[in-house]
Specification:
By secondary structure, the chain is an alpha+beta fold. The protein has one domain. It is 38% helix and 23% strand. The chain has three helices and five strands, in the order H-E-E-E-H-E-E-H. Strands 3-2-1-4-5 form a five-stranded antiparallel beta sheet, covered by helices on one side. Strand 4 and strand 5 form a beta hairpin. The protein is elongated and about 60 Å long. The C terminus is likely disordered.
């Protein structure tokens, strides 16, 4: 079975489309949801660091109590707290946690400053995602990315 150049072009853009969707749409949407509720009805509580994670961003696992129930969370340590700036967080140490009063399972170790952090980068990624999707749907569209050669002459012919 021979694969047409158009289908090959579509398939080659599927992986970047999925990567961009996961990293720049799904994860930021989840973070924005959490940040929204923490800014709207966030409560301050006490968490205990249960594990230092290797995530590349000083990640920790923690547990905290809200409404007489214990919850767990994972995320970056609170770099605004002076005691975590120099040496990071250690297992067993206490930390401030911010959790939503109406959704107590949503939490972070630092209070967010805005709902969508890094919005300019997200907008650029969304634009790139739109161009990739336009190419997957119709590689001959004027909005399609040309990946097979240079300029408009590289349009795939069937």
């Amino acid at each position: 079975m021979q694969v047409s150049p158009t289908n090959l072009e579509r398939f080659s853009l599927l992986i970047p489309a999925l990567f961009l969707a996961w990293g720049f749409i799904l994860l930021p949407a989840q973070d924005a949801w959490t940040s929204y509720w923490l800014l709207r009805d966030g409560q301050r509580g006490k968490a205990v660091i249960t594990k230092v994670l290797w995530t590349g961003h000083n990640g920790v696992a923690y547990r905290y109590r809200a409404n007489q129930k214990e919850y767990t969370g994972e995320g970056a340590r609170n770099y605004e707290d002076p005691k975590f700036r120099v040496y990071g967080a250690q297992v067993g140490e206490g930390s401030i946690v911010y959790y939503s009063a109406s959704h107590p399972w949503l939490s972070q170790l630092r209070r967010p400053s805005t709902v969508a952090e890094g919005l300019p980068v997200l907008i650029l990624a969304w634009l790139m995602e739109a161009l990739i999707l336009a190419t997957i749907i119709n590689p001959k569209s004027k909005w399609a990315l040309r990946i097979g050669g240079s300029g408009a002459k590289s349009a795939v012919k069937e």
